């Protein structure tokens, strides 16, 4: 029978899985497949698993239960194996790498920091701070029919937005990464200007949260911070 694989742990992990049922329409108990110094946490499945809300929450619940007992290599939602033999083979093949990563993640959790900038507030700041943008805007509003004015203003504002957001994003990263063992910056999407993942040691958790809170208060108008964590260290499993 096929297996759904949640995570990899070391053999000394307490693996408190009592009462946990797995993903799928006919959930089976979450259990362990061991190979040498490693264990894979799995459950039996008889269907293709899709990211339904219930199954995503179960996947996350298993990860959080495991995190409470020690370092864990969380797999992304949807990872499956054909059978126990395939799982055992994968554990043995990459044992050294898995063990090294588990040691690197020991005593750590992942935190996500997203920053969103209010576009209207940013536009007001640009028009306030840039004489050239302010002049173009005033000419358009006063009825100047030069067809090049809107294009020139749009290009100027777009360049200013990119420059300011890149500078702000870099400054936020520089302020937070000293509290982390590792970090990764992903491409921001939508209205986000920052999408930052940090690997933070447990003994620096409060220090990090305090610094993030202070930064959010000091950063100024028009910036919203969103902090998530502690989370399984998905971003730091290679």
UniProtKB/TrEMBL annotation:
<protein>
    <submittedName>
        <fullName>Gas vesicle synthesis protein</fullName>
    </submittedName>
</protein>
<dbReference type="InterPro" id="IPR009430">
    <property type="entry name" value="GvpL/GvpF"/>
</dbReference>
<dbReference type="Pfam" id="PF06386">
    <property type="entry name" value="GvpL_GvpF"/>
</dbReference>
<dbReference type="GO" id="GO:0031411">
    <property type="term" value="C:gas vesicle"/>
</dbReference>
<comment type="similarity">
    <text>Belongs to the gas vesicle GvpF/GvpL family.</text>
</comment>
<keyword id="KW-0304">Gas vesicle</keyword>
<dbReference type="GO" id="GO:0031412">
    <property type="term" value="P:gas vesicle organization"/>
</dbReference>
């Amino acid at each position: 029978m096929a297996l759904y694989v949640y995570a990899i742990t070391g053999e000394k992990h307490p693996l408190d899985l009592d009462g946990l049922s797995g993903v799928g329409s006919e959930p089976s108990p979450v259990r362990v497949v061991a190979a040498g110094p490693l264990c894979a946490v799995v459950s039996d499945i008889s269907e293709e698993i899709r990211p339904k809300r219930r199954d995503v929450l179960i996947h996350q619940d298993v990860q959080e239960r495991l995190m409470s007992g020690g370092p864990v290599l969380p797999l992304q939602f949807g990872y499956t194996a054909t059978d126990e033999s395939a799982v055992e083979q994968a554990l043995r093949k990459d044992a050294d790498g898995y063990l090294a990563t588990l040691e690197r993640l020991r005593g750590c959790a992942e935190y996500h920091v997203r920053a969103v900038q209010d576009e209207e507030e940013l536009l007001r700041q640009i028009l306030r701070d840039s004489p050239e943008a302010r002049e173009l805007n005033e000419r358009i509003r006063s009825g100047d029919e030069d067809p090049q004015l809107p294009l020139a203003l749009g290009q100027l504002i777009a360049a200013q937005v990119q420059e300011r957001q890149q500078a702000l994003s870099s400054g936020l990263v520089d302020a937070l990464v000293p509290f982390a063992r590792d970090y990764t910056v992903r491409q921001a999407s939508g209205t986000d200007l920052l999408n930052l993942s940090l690997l933070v040691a447990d003994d620096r958790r409060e220090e990090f949260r305090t610094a993030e809170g202070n930064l959010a208060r000091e950063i100024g108008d028009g910036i919203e911070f969103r902090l998530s964590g502690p989370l399984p260290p998905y971003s730091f499993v290679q």
